[in-house]
Design a protein that fits this description.
The protein is built from 21 helices and 29 strands. The protein is an alpha/beta fold. It has 3 domains: about 260 residues, ANL, N-terminal domain (Rossmann fold, 3-Layer(aba) Sandwich), CATH 3.40.50; about 130 residues, Rossmann fold (3-Layer(aba) Sandwich); about 150 residues, ANL, C-terminal domain (GMP Synthetase, Chain A, domain 3). The two termini are about 45 Å apart.
Length: about 625
């Protein structure tokens, strides 16, 4: 339903978007059962029965290859910049050939196939070919090999999980890491194969025909078979391998299809950069496209300076019908859409819904997206999110109705139980169901720690009801239980919520921040300075153009400090409580360090790791020492 009213030109933060209708989308009625216990715990269930689901992921591949053989499943830019397409029929044929090669060369379910490179057509084919014959696929963040100085994480992966095969797209690019680690596995590469002695060209894996051995191994796969080993980010130590069984992946897709039935109506089309070594893209994006017969355009861009231009180019060339991404990508995309109405029409004109996950979306950005939707469609495109992790498939609770505020993570999906348990002044949420990982690969100690005495997985997230009097409104994210801390007064600080709210005010001068104040009198921030935005705040001055000032001079500049004080003062007027009010900020010019575990390959910060690695800066922040400290 579109609204014919004149569209206001006012700032969307005034709330004018909230009384506009939503575009049409087939969604089910909300369903919830609540069991309240004398212990103070609450059990939440979706009473809708979980429908039957396939035994393994490649059941979907074979079904689509027979049903829509010539439809593009995956597309990637080739060396000449043109799109290279992989149809469903071709994907099945290549996966079967890879399966045969793996079996012929002695690979089996005892050791995984490690994939160190970024998303690619060959990545997808190798992963599918391994999983469908019972060989776990283990995607590994390329950052462990390409951005690390000590290669500690990729060495840990090879030593602890002992892959029998390692795939890299470009052997020359990964040679330093592999020479440092010295794995015993067979190395397979697509480009520059000669750079690594003994490496096997990927084309060799496609050379033979698939035979009966593939069908026998395929038939032996069960729901308990390990499909993938997805590594945790390793932000609090060395990465753990999360066991993703075939049951986890297949039940998760059926759960998604039950709460989002519109996926059955129109094949999804996405253009996506998110890495397949992380559950968001590995299971949610990739497997959703496969289950519902859609098309996945591989975006070589990334929501970081110098890389997002490629994303914008791709979005101008292809036509999507859903946008699925992290909050940072929306932060960069929205200004481009606001500046170009034709581009906004191209991107949003056919979008069924907008989805974000991984990190919260600031409400101010949410409101701007709604305003764009109204200008393009005459109605708001539903925006939704979910709450989950690598261990939950990923969605465990999910939004499946339009809402007008950021942070609404939804309600349990069919087949899943959620436990709400009091924890340090917060409400911790835990999960149990077929889409929950059984544990960590070759790590029984961490597996035991991850579950409570009733078998509920401890995700470590806190939630709260949007409206305790009306649970059907759903739950909202309330920060990480482990990252919350107390001030000296004993007052709890919810770091996740505070950080997100603060960034809505201090941006764009600050791109991200860690919240400080544990065992201190007041809350502060260690802020990662957006130097370009800070330069713009300075402008030309007596000392010369901002472009000629060093980073240290930029973050110490009075114009930057004045602008930040003004922004933080505005935040404090809306958040006057001691557990929310920001008293000081230190502007950092050094980016997050992946070797120190400060950031994941997707750009998410680890609060605790940053505070530990930069303890000296925290001391300076509260001592008020240095030109990079701004007291409010």
């Amino acid at each position: 339903m579109n609204d014919a009213r004149p569209i206001p030109d006012a700032d969307p933060s005034t709330g004018w978007t909230k009384d506009w209708p939503y575009t049409s989308l087939r969604l089910p009625e909300r369903a919830l059962e609540i069991e309240r216990r004398d212990s103070g715990e609450t059990i939440l269930r979706n009473p809708t029965p979980l429908e039957p689901y396939p035994v393994q992921v490649s059941d979907d591949l074979r079904r689509q290859a027979a049903r829509i053989p010539d439809r593009t499943f995956l597309a990637q830019r080739g060396a000449d910049g043109d799109w290279v397409h992989l149809t469903y029929a071709a994907a099945r044929d290549r996966a079967d050939r890879v399966s045969q090669w793996l079996l012929d060369n002695g690979h089996n379910g005892d050791n995984p196939v490690a994939i160190l490179s970024d998303n690619s057509l060959n990545f997808a084919v190798l992963q599918l070919g391994a999983m469908q014959v019972g060989i776990p696929a283990m995607p590994v963040s390329p950052a462990y090999s390409l951005m690390s100085k000590d290669f500690a994480k990729v060495r840990h992966v090879c030593d602890s999980f002992t892959p029998s095969l390692i795939y890299v797209e470009d052997a020359a690019l990964f040679k330093p890491a592999l020479e440092a680690v010295k794995p015993t596995a067979t190395v397979v590469a697509t480009r520059n194969v000669e750079a690594i002695d003994g490496a096997v060209p990927f084309d060799d894996l496609l050379a033979g025909e698939a035979g009966e051995a593939v069908e026998r191994a395929y038939a032996a796969v069960t729901g308990d078979s390990i499909g993938k080993i997805l590594l945790t980010s390793g932000s609090t130590g060395l990465p753990k391998g999360v066991v993703n069984t075939q049951r986890l992946m297949c039940s998760s897709l059926t759960q998604i299809g039950q709460v989002w039935p519109f996926l059955h109506d129109e094949p999804p089309v996405i253009c996506d950069w998110l890495p397949w070594n992380h559950t968001f893209a590995a299971n949610f994006n990739f497997n959703t496209i496969l289950r519902f017969g859609g098309t996945y355009w591989l975006d070589e861009g990334k929501p970081v300076p110098g890389r997002f231009e490629a994303t914008l180019r791709n979005l101008r060339e292809v036509k999507i019908n859903q946008y699925v991404n992290v909050a940072r990508a929306y932060d960069l995309l929205v200004p481009a859409l606001e500046a170009d109405p034709a581009f906004a029409e191209h991107v949003l004109g056919d979008c069924l819904y907008l989805f974000y996950a991984g990190a919260g979306l600031p409400q101010a950005l949410w409101d701007r997206i709604e305003a764009l939707s109204i200008r393009v469609r005459g109605a708001r495109i539903p925006m939704m999110t979910s709450l989950g992790s690598t261990e939950t498939g990923p969605p465990a609770i999910k939004g499946y109705w339009p809402c007008d505020r950021s942070g609404t993570v939804g309600l349990p999906i069919p087949g899943l139980e959620a436990k709400l348990a009091p924890a340090g002044g917060k409400t911790e949420i835990r999960f149990r169901g077929p889409n929950i990982a059984p544990g960590y690969y070759r790590n029984p100690e961490k597996t035991a720690e991850a579950f409570d005495d009733e078998g509920f997985y401890r995700i470590g997230d806190a939630v709260k009801w949007l409206d305790e009097a009306d649970p059907m409104q759903g739950l909202s994210f309330d920060g990480r239980v482990a990252e919350n801390f107390k001030l000296l007064t004993g007052t709890w600080v919810a770091t996740g919520v505070l950080r997100l709210d603060a960034l809505s005010f201090v941006g764009p001068l600050v791109s991200d921040a860690a919240v400080t104040g544990e065992d201190r009198d007041e809350v502060g921030l260690l802020g990662f300075a957006n130097l370009e935005a800070c330069k713009a705040a300075i402008g030309p001055g007596a000392e010369g153009p901002a472009s000629e000032i060093s980073p240290a001079e930029i973050v110490a500049h009075p114009a930057v400090h004045d602008a930040l004080r003004e922004k933080i003062a505005a935040y404090n007027r809306e958040h006057p409580g001691s557990s929310q009010r920001i008293a000081r900020i230190l502007l950092m010019t050094a980016p997050p360090d992946i070797d120190a575990g400060e950031i994941t390959d997707k750009g998410y910060l680890n609060q605790r790791a940053i505070l530990n690695a930069r303890a000296e800066l925290v001391e300076r922040l509260y001592a008020g020492e240095g030109g990079d400290v701004v007291a409010v």
